[in-house]
Amino acid sequence: MRSDEVVFEIKDLEKTYSISRGLFKEPQKIHAVNKINFDVKHGETFSIVGESGCGKSTTAKMLLNIESPTSGKIFFKGKDISTFNAQEWKEYRKKVQIIFQDPYSSLNPRWKVGQIISEPLELNTELSKKEIEEKVRAIMKRVGLEQDWYDRYPHQFSGGQRQRIGIARALVLNPEVIVCDEPVSALDVSIQAQVLNLLLDLQEELDLTYVFISHDLSVVEHISDRIMVMYFGDVVELSSVDELFDNPKADYTKKLLGAIPTI
Amino acid sequence: MLLEVKNLKTEFFTDNGVITAVNDIDFSIEKGQTICIVGESGSGKSMTSLSIMGLIEEPGRVTQGEILFEGTDLLKYSQNQMRNIRGKDIAMIFQEPMSSLNPSYTVGYQIDEVLKLHQKELNKEQRRKRVVELFDEVGIPFPEDKYNEYPFKLSGGQRQRVMIAMAMACQPKLLIADEPTTALDVTIQAQVLDLMNDLKKKNGTSILFITHDLGVVAQMADIVVVMYKGCVVESASAKELFDDPRHPYTKALLNSIPVPGKVKRKSRLQTVDENVNYHDFPKEIR
Fold this sequence. Notes:
Structural class of chain B: alpha/beta
Number of helices of chain A: 9
CATH class of the largest domain in chain B: Alpha Beta
CATH topology of chain A: Rossmann fold
Oligomer: heterodimer
Order of helices and strands of chain A: EEEHEEHEHHHEHEHEEHH
Number of strands of chain B: 11
Largest sheet of chain A: 6 strands, mixed
């Protein structure tokens, strides 16, 4: 259920990369994310849209602490994540999970499905082997993977099935927030529909919060509660899905909406 | 009629048996028309275009049918004759502009190569002038300077423009575009689609457009051909197909995409049922 509890609060978040231009020149600074502010509420789907290079993936990476911000703060349930101690980090990594874009390159080809999904449990919990297997099989069933696929390798699956494996792996630690980085853009339309349906079902059932990153505005329109539009590292608009599609304010948003080929 | 494909069948002879990639399909393209082939991965849409270009590689082979280009069967042509047609009368644009351009030659040189091959009457100076002209036509900024740039220096949209310039260099009668905008951002995609439509109007080029994006189809197509597992299940004018899809597979495909304003937000989308064999339904060709 959606509530007003704030899960993430982002303040003046900034990320710059410097590119060397040679020995005697000042390195060039690239602002990937330019002092942005937003918050994510419990149970909502918060989407970040924009074109390649707008900083949407960089923002997601900073939420997951894969990249560390140049400046600015990320508060998770009121606590600044840069002040976390080891125990708090461990908890945080369980609570915040990611689903990647490409289900081909994000799964280890040498591991069996059961192993891929159990790894987070082995690393983060004290469960016995048997308990882990039970949990993995239960989650496989929930996302629509058959039981005898436990011992198969990723290459034996189609794109949609692989994405289900990725989802199962993200879910197995009972997270609260899932960052979905373009989870359906590598999939065929009919498979895309299946995965979107699954994500919607899981959100209702497990009370999940999604940070959904996409460049596909039709998909974003379908599943989001609020949408943030980014352009070259800046937030150009942040509004509810109704507001954004019925009454876009920023020129860039209008341009983006106008560019979707419609049926 | 510019191109007529009749009973085309393309098969792959692998160690594990024969795989039929394209199974007895028919369609035709008139001069100045845009035909879109839509379908999901593995439906045979790219194999259809490669069959027309004569680019099916071992262990694959076109095993049946005719590909009539202005009345003559391309399948009867030798490799040499095909080479004279490819790039000149029929040109092709691919999905990934980075991997279809040679990274170690300048983009100007790569287009010059096409002219060298197919327009032998032009001398070096004229060819250079023509390349710059083409760059200008497809909307590449500073066309003079871009002649000497290498592909890695250009953005995705610009690379695709270079590919289009290369394809249009000899003013082909048929342009085959295999998912030309899939790798591009939406605003760039809109520009590239506009460009293709402009060039079509100006030169009367026919376009065979291959895509899985139904939004793009709605914007580009005169005629839509829907492929499913190697077969054509439905073909109709774009308007008919979107207003009144008749084949169950087409209906399922159209219902599986969220359309802003038409599909209720957060409602569960319909999916293509994997347990249904859509070949069991009669084909709908209008």
